[in-house]
Amino acid sequence: MIGKLNHVAIAVPDLEAARAFYRDVLGASVSEIVDQPEHGVRTVFVELPNTKIELLGVLGDASPIAGFLARNPSGGIHHLCLEVEDIRAARDQLRARGVRVLGEGEPKIGAHGKPVLFLHPKDAFGTLLELEQA
Ligand code: CO
Q: How many A from CA of 111 to the centre of ligand 1?
């Protein structure tokens, strides 16, 4: 069912500093900061030869990563994104296997313009998994 690792997302308390670290200290190619008001985050994508890192910063008062950053004030790995060919088929198979899908279960358009869903971390051994239709 799952295909490539699309990205690893890291929530950070200071997005500008994290972007500068990946660009200037690690020598990676990084995107500009993009505000994603419909998701309550600001994102930077770090391009690696085989995958991406998504740096997530808070945007607004109701950011979905605010609680995570309160628990992890230095930042930390927030989720992994795995590609699937057909997101609704993947959702239905996972539900049939007892995995909880977060929210209403209808795919939303994610930060990369593709349909995404999140799986309950308690059903995935403590890791928030994002599925993205590739
Ligand atoms: Co993501």
A: 7
CA dist 127 → 22, 83, 86, 121 (Å): 23, 16, 22, 5
pLDDT tens-digit readout, 101-117: 999 899 998 877 899 99
* pTM more than 0.85: yes
Please say if 132 is a catalytic residue. Answer: no
CA of 54 to the centre of ligand 1 (A): 7
On the question of pLDDT at 122 being above 90, the answer is yes
Q: What mean pLDDT, rounded, does the chain reach? A: 96
Q: Which domains does the chain possess?
A: 2-133 (3.10.180.10)
Q: Which of 54, 83, 130, 132 is catalytic?
A: 130
